[in-house]
């Protein structure tokens, strides 16, 4: 497009054509912006060649998880409660993508309010894995991952609170990255758990993620937890061999044999590329999954208190009692508007914060979080990155995860990066015998995104897992 | 510790209508609660070191100036309201 070999309008039309062809079956999108995307494409095509060079993402079709506010366009969070909510502003991530020349083609499906790992908790429809019919594409950023894996768009934006970018990336055979907490503005990103939430990126390669990341990262005055990368950030290391840590005791008994096999092979491949691998110990890792869910549920209970049927949501009438009181209206609206998993998490978060349980659960979770963060700080004095599986299993059949605790255990390898606020990236390293993708995760020190991206790119330069496409 | 009375109290605190319906796994809300709280109980094995100050997860950037600026107009704020009248949100009676 920069060279004028094709037009932005042609590329965007092709993206929309693929969405129209495949999305009825896959369920990746909640809304497709046909007219505005083509209008934006035509405006970009009208620019002079010199003006086009100012846009690093010129004409790239991008899908955005329906958790990011988009001015004048519905933002549902996958929830009936926000089914007709239309923001009056764009999220900073959206503003910066458009400012870099990207063309947003639609909003993608998700587990309601980002709470879930299979895409089945969307109030509208479940998202299918393009690699295998009736299998989950992961979650909560299910639609964004599937849209990229099915080649409807070359890249997409999601959110990652406990693995919701990395796990669907692994299950869909693509690359996904969660940056350092604070690297990307959360303004306009509808909150689930504010100390854990971070925008994340999906693409078919680490090199494409690097382009996306650098287009949107950086301080935003509207999000005071956002910062520019400090000058002392870990550099991209100019190709020197890295010390790569792995924590084998954390895997044993916890993962599928095929996942373990392919992740081990990826570690051997990295050794073959000249890197050194070192066993490390993270002694407080065993508390991570419980600490994560206590903190996430507590923050969700607080954040979702604003949805009350008054200012921004639909409103329910309690049955059999007219006229209702305000509190009856709140209770009915929230019960009918939220799905079962969201209600469960609000209730448990309320429990963890309530009198008599706050110290035992929430305070303990915060202590565990501090210990986990300290473990990572210590380990990164010895190694450059950590590697391990992204998910203990490959994608699961839709409808198979009915036990909530079993589902929560699926996040066991991803939540620590959110607790500590460190960057993590999942990239494809193989396929199971059933043809389902397998991902490995590399985790870096604070502000170490460039190191992760360069390592994943080096792996992808010498393998082809990331280039394989599902048969559609 | 977890009993029916506590579950019903939590529904009230969370501003949710209480429902005894079973979950998708076929279990009652009380059974779900018990199972998940058991899942959290591993946290009790973490020793308390006496330092209750938890560091923030990110260093704040420079804070913006404390000045009054226009954010949303009244019409914009009312645009997504379930019910509104002139410049007011309309709600049911409190009592």
Describe the structure.
The complex is a heterodimer of chains A (472) and B (95). Chain A is built from 15 helices and 11 strands. By secondary structure, chain A is of the alpha/beta class. Chain A has one domain (1-472): Amidase signature (AS) domain (Amidase signature (AS) enzymes). In chain A, strand 10 and strand 11 form a beta hairpin. In chain A, helix 7 packs antiparallel against helix 15 and helix 9 packs across helix 11 (340-353). Chain A starts with 7 loop residues before the first helix and ends in an 11-residue tail after the last helix. Chain B is mainly α. Chain B has a domain at 4-45. In chain B, a hairpin with a 2-residue loop joins strand 1 and strand 2. Classes of the chains: A alpha/beta (472), B mainly alpha (95). The interface between A and B is large, with 74 and 54 residues.
**Count of DSSP-assigned helices of chain B:** 3
Shape of chain A: globular
The poorly predicted ranges of chain B are none
Examine the secondary-structure arrangement and name the CATH architecture of chain A. Alpha-Beta Complex
Class from helix and strand fractions of chain B: mainly alpha
- Biggest sheet strand order of chain A reads 1-3-2-4-6-5-10-11-9-7-8
**Low-pLDDT residue spans of chain A:** none
- Helix coverage percent of chain B: 25-40%
Share of residues in strands of chain B: under 5%
Summarize the structure.
The complex is a heterodimer of chains A (472) and B (95). Chain A is α/β, with parallel strands linked by helices.
């Amino acid at each position: 497009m920069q060279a004028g070999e094709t037009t932005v309008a042609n590329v965007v039309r092709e993206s929309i054509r693929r969405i129209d062809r495949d999305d009825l079956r896959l369920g990746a999108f909640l809304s497709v912006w046909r007219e505005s995307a083509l209008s934006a494409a035509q405006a970009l095509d009208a620019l002079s060649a010199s003006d086009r060079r100012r846009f690093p993402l010129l004409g790239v079709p991008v899908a955005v998880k329906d958790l990011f506010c988009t001015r004048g366009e519905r933002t549902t969070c996958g929830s009936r409660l926000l089914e007709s909510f239309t923001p009056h502003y764009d999220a900073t991530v959206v503003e910066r993508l458009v400012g870099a020349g990207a063309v947003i083609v639609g909003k993608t499906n998700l587990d309601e309010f980002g709470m879930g790992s299979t895409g089945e908790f969307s109030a509208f429809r479940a998202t299918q894995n393009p690699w295998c019919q009736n299998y989950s594409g992961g979650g909560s950023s299910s639609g964004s991952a599937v849209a990229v894996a099915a080649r409807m768009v070359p890249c997409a934006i999601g959110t990652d609170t406990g693995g919701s970018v990395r796990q669907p990336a692994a299950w869909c055979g693509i690359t996904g990255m969660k940056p350092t907490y604070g690297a990307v503005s959360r303004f306009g990103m509808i909150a689930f758990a504010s100390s854990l939430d971070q925008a994340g990126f999906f693409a078919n390669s680490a090199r494409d993620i690097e382009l996306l990341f650098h287009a949107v990262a950086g301080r935003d005055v509207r999000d005071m937890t956002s910062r520019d990368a400090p000058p002392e950030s870990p550099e991209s290391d100019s190709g020197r061999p890295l010390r790569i840590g792995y924590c084998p005791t954390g895997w044993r008994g916890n993962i599928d044999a095929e996942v373990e096999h392919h992740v081990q092979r990826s570690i051997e491949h990295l050794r073959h590329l000249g890197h050194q691998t070192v066993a490390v110990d993270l002694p407080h890792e065993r508390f991570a999954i419980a600490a994560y869910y206590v903190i996430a549920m507590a923050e969700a209970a607080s954040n979702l208190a604003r949805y009350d049927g008054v200012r921004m949501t639909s409103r329910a009438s309690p049955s059999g009692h007219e006229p209702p009181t305000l509190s009856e209206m709140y209770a009915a609206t929230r019960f009918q508007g939220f799905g079962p998993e969201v209600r469960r998490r609000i209730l448990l978060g309320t429990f963890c914060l309530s009198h008599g349980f706050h110290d035992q659960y929430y305070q303990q979770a915060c202590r565990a979080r501090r210990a986990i963060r300290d473990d990572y700080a210590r380990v990164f004095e010895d190694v450059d990155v950590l590697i391990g599986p992204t998910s203990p299993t490959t994608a699961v059949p839709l409808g198979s995860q009915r036990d909530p605790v079993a589902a929560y255990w699926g996040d066991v390898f991803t939540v620590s990066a959110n607790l500590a606020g460190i960057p993590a990236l999942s990239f494809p390293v193989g396929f199971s015998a059933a043809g389902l993708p397998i991902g490995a995760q590399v985790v870096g020190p604070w502000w170490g995104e460039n190191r992760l991206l360069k390592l994943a790119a080096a792996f992808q330069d010498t393998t082809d897992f990331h280039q394989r496409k599902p048969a559609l | 510790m977890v009993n029916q009375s506590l579950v019903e109290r939590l529904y009230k605190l969370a501003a949710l209508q209480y429902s005894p319906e079973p979950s998708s796994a076929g279990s009652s809300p009380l059974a779900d609660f018990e199972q998940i709280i058991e899942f959290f109980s591993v946290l009790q094995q973490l020793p308390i070191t006496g330092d209750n100050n938890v560091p923030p997860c990110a260093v704040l950037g420079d804070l913006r100036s404390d000045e009054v600026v226009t954010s949303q107009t009244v019409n914009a704020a009312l645009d997504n309201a379930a019910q509104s009248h002139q410049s007011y949100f309309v709600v049911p009676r409190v009592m």
